[in-house]
Amino acid sequence: MEVLALIADYLSDQEDGMKNLITCFLNQVMLIEALQQAGAAQYERTDARKAYRNGYKDRSLKTRYGELTLQKPQFREFPFETQVFDRYSRVEKALVNAVAESYLQGVSTRRVQEIVAHLGVEQLSPASVSRMARELDDQVQEFLMRPIEQPIPYLFVDASYYKVRDGVRYVTKAALVVSGVRADGYREILGAKVTDCENEAFWAGLFEELKERGLTGVQLIVSDGHEGIKKAVSTSFLGASWQMCQVHCTRAVLRNIPKKLQKEVAEWLRRAYGDEQRLQEVADKLNAMGYRKSANTVERFLPGLINYTAFPKKHWKRIRTTNMLERVNRELKRRTKVVGVFPNDESLIRLVGSILMDINEDWISGIRYLTMECEEE
Fold it and tell me: 152: which of 47, 191, 211, 330 lies 20 to 30 Å off by Cα?
């Protein structure tokens, strides 16, 4: 009933209503954490109990919707620990910092100026912004440069694109994210980098950095069809295979197909993926219809469209595309859109890295992504 009342409150007054909804949600998260740490619910009689509750302590948390007052549970026997303040505030700080930098450097648009007022960023001095940036940079860099401790049989690479100020120009830059499925079947974010150049030398350098941090056991690399990635894979991961993301391939083929035929051609490709002969038949058919560019696309990527079939069939659905990272990139876009234009590369990686830290914590503590062969023996 309380939740329904909060939703009604949100519908009538969205600003204060959202604050109340977030406050309720985060308080509930801490109650669940308290239950797990105590080993028993409040007033529950059980031998599994590790601690007794000792009321609440008010804690404030600054968010884009204003300052929240949360009720942090207390224990008698030992301190209560929660991820709420570290995880939630880290991304909020990075977001505020990105907007604040834009504002203070004079690159904000009217839309960003409105956001600045909403976030209360006008109260931040340049010194405060720099201090906040340093704190966040230390956390993000520690995360992005941490040792890779398990073999990674499946490696995924994808990018999302953002507007960044470069001197007096505004340019599009790529935020490249590398993730993998570990030998134990769990997913992990392995690295991220901002670049405006995706040639072979860049990719070879990125792959070498990952190997220096401990990356081993790579058997399959899944990405889009960028030539720089393909060439770097062949030299950086001897004995590994490159898999062209089927979704990216379909998009590339359909780019030169009339709209009225796109659905039909997409279905041909869907049925042919994983079968070299059927893919060649699709290419021949497209060529005969006069769509030579599309036929060339299929033939160019054909060797990389069947490599996933060399691995366990139960893995195919999840290793033939970069869908895992596509979802990550959608989340990055959703949570960074308030910034508009980033003032510099550092601001972009600071916010992207903060969000990736949260995603990674969910991945490695969540449900196993794949069941690996060694676990069945």
Answer: 330
Are β-strands 220-223 and 154-166 bridged in parallel, bridged antiparallel, or unpaired?
Answer: parallel
Q: How far apart are CA 195 and CA 172, in angstroms?
A: 9
**Global pTM exceeds 0.85:** no
Tokens of 285: 């058919």
Q: Which residues pair with 194 in a beta bridge?
A: 175
Residue whose tokens read 């497209």:
286
Indicate left, alpha or beta for 66 from its phi (over 0: left) and psi (-120 to 50: alpha): left
Query: Would you state the pLDDT for residue 7?
Result: 46
> Looking at the DSSP assignment, which residues form a beta bridge with residue 244?
223
Cα separation, 101 vs 356, in Å, equals: 21
Helices 323-336 and 345-364: crossing angle in degrees, nearest 10, is 130
- Looking from the CA of 231 toward its CB, the CA atoms found within 13 Å total 11
- Give yes or no for a contact between 356 and 143, defined as CB atoms under 8 angstroms apart: yes
Measured in residues, the chain has a length of: 377
Classify residue 32 as exposed, middle or buried by CB count within 10 Å of its CB (0-12, 13-18, 19+): exposed
| Token pair 């209503």 in the structure block, residue | 17
Give yes or no for a contact between 124 and 82, defined as CB atoms under 8 angstroms apart. no
Output the six-digit token pair for 343. 């003032």
* Cβ-proximal residues to 41 (8 Å cutoff; 6+ apart), any chain: 35
